[in-house]
Design a protein that fits this description.
With 257 residues, the protein is an alpha/beta fold. It is built from 12 helices and 11 strands. The protein has a single domain, classed as Alpha-Beta Complex (putative 2-phosphosulfolactate phosphatase), CATH 3.90.1560. The radius of gyration is 17 Å and the shape is globular. The strands form 2 sheets. Strands 9-1-8-2-7-10-11 form a 7-stranded mixed sheet, with helices on both faces. Strands 3-6-4-5 form a 4-stranded mixed sheet, sandwiched between helices. It comes from Fictibacillus solisalsi. Its cofactor is Mg(2+). GO terms for molecular function: 2-phosphosulfolactate phosphatase activity; magnesium ion binding; sulfopyruvate decarboxylase activity. Belongs to the ComB family. This is Probable 2-phosphosulfolactate phosphatase.
Length: 257
C-alpha cells in the first residue's frame, strides 16, 4: 500500500486520481465529513454533496419525493432557507431522509475526487473503520488522503485527521506502509498531539470560528475519535453506507483501539 496526502482540495488532479485505480479518502474534519458520517450514523437515507446552494436548490426541485433536508454554509455563515450543517443540530432531523449538503470546502472536495476508482468519506469519528476497509479491500492500491483545507489554505484539523487515519492503518496492519512526505508529516503531527484532539481542533483557524459562533458541541463531536463504525462511500455522486457491513468481531476490534 502506498499512501499520499493532499493538503488541500486545490491539489486534486482528476487525471492523476484516475490513473492506476487510485482510492481516495476525503476528510473535512470541521465540518463536512463529520456531518456526513454523523448523519448516516443517525439514519439518514443518503447524503448528497453539492458544489453550491444553487445546485442544492436545483437538485431539491428535481427529487421525486419531499423527504429531504437542505443544509449548508458559505464561509462558515448560514445560507438562507438552509439548515446549518451542524451534526449536532441535524442529528434529530435526518432519520430516513436525504440530506442535500453544500459547504465551502468538504463537499467540493468530494465532488472533485469523483475520478478516483473509489471514494470514501472519513473523519475522526470513523477513521479506524475506514482504515480497516482500506486494508481489507485495497491493500495493493495507492491511497490518496485528501484534506479539504479551507479556501485554498491548509487546515490543521484535516492534516491531524489524515495522520489519525494513517496511524490507524499502521496499528491495524502491524506493518510498514509506503508514505509520501506529506503523509509522514500528517502522521507525525498526529503522534505529537495524539491525546490533544480537542485542544488542537479548537486552536485551528476554523476552530476559532466555531468558538466565535458558539459551535462548541460540534467542536467536541468532531474531536471524538473512533465512536462509530460507519463506513461511507461515494456512489453515483451520493454518500451512502457501504453495503458490506463489518462483522461484529471487526467492529469490536475497531472500537477497542
Amino acid at each position: 500500500m502506498k499512501v499520499h496526502v493532499l493538503l488541500t482540495k486545490e491539489e486534486i488532479n482528476a487525471e492523476r486520481l484516475r490513473e492506476n485505480g487510485k482510492v481516495a479518502v476525503v476528510l473535512d474534519v470541521l465540518l463536512a465529513t463529520t456531518t456526513i458520517i454523523s448523519a448516516l450514523n443517525e439514519g439518514a437515507k443518503e447524503v448528497i454533496p453539492v458544489m453550491d446552494e444553487n445546485e442544492a436548490f436545483s437538485l431539491s426541485q428535481s427529487l421525486k419525493h419531499e423527504n429531504f433536508i437542505l443544509a449548508g454554509e458559505r464561509d462558515a455563515r448560514p445560507i438562507e432557507h438552509f439548515h446549518y450543517p451542524s451534526p449536532t443540530m441535524l442529528s434529530p432531523l435526518v432519520l430516513g431522509k436525504s440530506l442535500i449538503l453544500s459547504t465551502t470546502n468538504g463537499t467540493i472536495a468530494l465532488k472533485k475526487a469523483e475520478s478516483a476508482e473509489r471514494v470514501y468519506i472519513s473523519s475522526l469519528l470513523n477513521n479506524k473503520r475506514t482504515a480497516q476497509q482500506l486494508l481489507d479491500c485495497h491493500l495493493e492500491s495507492t491511497i490518496v488522503i485528501i484534506c479539504s483545507g479551507n479556501a485554498g489554505e491548509v487546515s490543521l484539523e484535516d492534516v491531524y485527521g489524515a495522520g489519525h487515519l494513517i496511524h490507524s492503518l499502521l496499528y491495524l496492519s502491524q506493518q510498514s506502509i509506503n508514505m509520501s512526505d506529506a503523509a509522514k508529516m500528517a502522521f507525525y503531527l498526529f503522534l505529537g498531539n495524539q491525546y490533544k484532539a480537542s485542544e488542537l481542533l479548537s486552536s485551528s483557524s476554523v476552530g476559532n470560528l466555531f468558538e466565535r459562533y458558539g459551535l462548541f458541541d460540534d467542536l467536541q463531536l468532531a474531536a471524538t475519535a473512533n465512536t462509530v463504525s460507519v463506513l461511507a462511500v461515494m456512489k453515483n455522486g451520493t454518500a451512502l453506507l457501504e453495503e458490506e457491513h463489518a462483522s461484529q468481531s471487526e467492529i469490536r476490534k475497531v472500537r477497542d483501539i
